[in-house]
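note to self — DONT lose this again. spent like an hour looking for the file last time. sequence + predicted structure for the chain T wanted, 519 res
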Amino acid sequence: MFSRQLLRSTTSKVNVLRSVESTTLKSFSLLNARSYSVASQKKNNFPKTLLARDSNSFFKRVSVPRRYMGHAIETRNASFKKLSESDVKFFESFMPKERVYATKEIGGTLDSKDLEGFNSDWLNKYSGNSQLVLLPTSAEEVSKILKYCNDQTIAVVPQGGNTGLVGGSVPVFDEVIVSLSKMNKVRSLDKDSGALVCDAGCVLEELDNYVLPDGTIVNNLSTLRKDSTGYDIKQLFIGSEGTLGIVTGVSILAAKRPSSVNVAVLGLESYDDVRNTFKSSRGHLCEILSAFEFWDARCMEIVLNHFKMSNPLSEKYPFYALVETSGSNAEHDETKLTSFLELTMEEGLVKDGVLAQDKSQIAKMWTMREGIPESLAHFGATYKYDISIPISKLYQIVPDIKNRLSEAGVYDNNSDSSSMETDKVVKSVNGYGHIGDGNLHLNIVADKFEEKVTNLLEPYIYEWVQNVSGSISAEHGLGIMKPNDLKYTKGPEIISIMKDMKHMFDPKGIMNPYKYLPA
């Protein structure tokens, strides 16, 4: 019989939200949203320390070579203008000074260190030296900024929550940072369709409104579910990482919040059992299946140790899976999930499992999966690879990387301590992700970022992914980390078309330069 015991866990909360609700949204939810904040202490109307991420960020500051994960940084493009006091005065002519953060070198009042939070990424891995951060509150202000920058050939970096993992939202040199953190208003909500329109500083799901580098405002904020008239221009901006323009508004389909949510954590003996359990869940749970996540034993050991939680299962297993159902009939959904779990246990696919009994237990179960990045980050430098692979081969790269690093003498393949105590440079190799769409998060934890480890990982990982017809980026994007590796996923003809599109939208190349596309 399927185990239904309570989770044996101490209270330790991870700051991750799976849904967002406000008086405006009412019963609608923005699924898989995350909450981040901007911390500041004011002095003379300017922040003493400007952080583009939470001041309690759990990520350690680690030393990173200028080479940035194996890719040499280009020299600064000499055609880009260097900022002067006159540029700052122009921006202050239509924006209040408290939204124009300028350093003393260009006529402002701040020191360079005061902009560190904007110049460094969320993982403290990539950083630049911008002397100017602009915080517009409307598309019109963004338009004025970009028109001036285009006329003056001033390079620009759009920045949202600055939570990216590939350096896409921070400057490489001294580009102007246009932060959208002040553009966070909800504009409208269609209660019949659930279509919500808001500023780009809110949670993003679908991008529809953008400003081109020359300052032109393109308005495509329709709340229609279907529209087959003309080319779908917004698709060009989705995933373009600020290289074509700046998104200023979004249209989101806010799904009706399900009245019944069930979550179970399962213990499995092999990745093949994980894969076959997922296949079975699609057939038995059908329309109520809303999530199927998996992670390995190493991840479980580390996350339980970090959050001081107990394993909800009576024994340790090589793999774990989280299954979530969402529907409108609690009794029907729970019966269906329980029946599925008992069936998979009878078939030998699942060895043990526990079903959450309330919202608190659901949150704790999700912490076991979503708390993995935080848990790993406490131990040093984390090489993060976000790859898309056919489901049948999704986990195979993890043991392959372990063997490669072990043979090179930088990793102990027999180490399984959650304390990360080892005399090797690489402390841990971990795999977890979303099996439903073939997305693996491959994380390698080391003492620090160093060239020897980087050269063992790259381009080996990208070549491995290419050989199974995968993608080198499933979610994280390309940023500064992977533009020269785009060739492992896209052919030369496609890359050429992408470069032509970039030139068409941004002929001066001022939008997020040095990134996304190979030089």
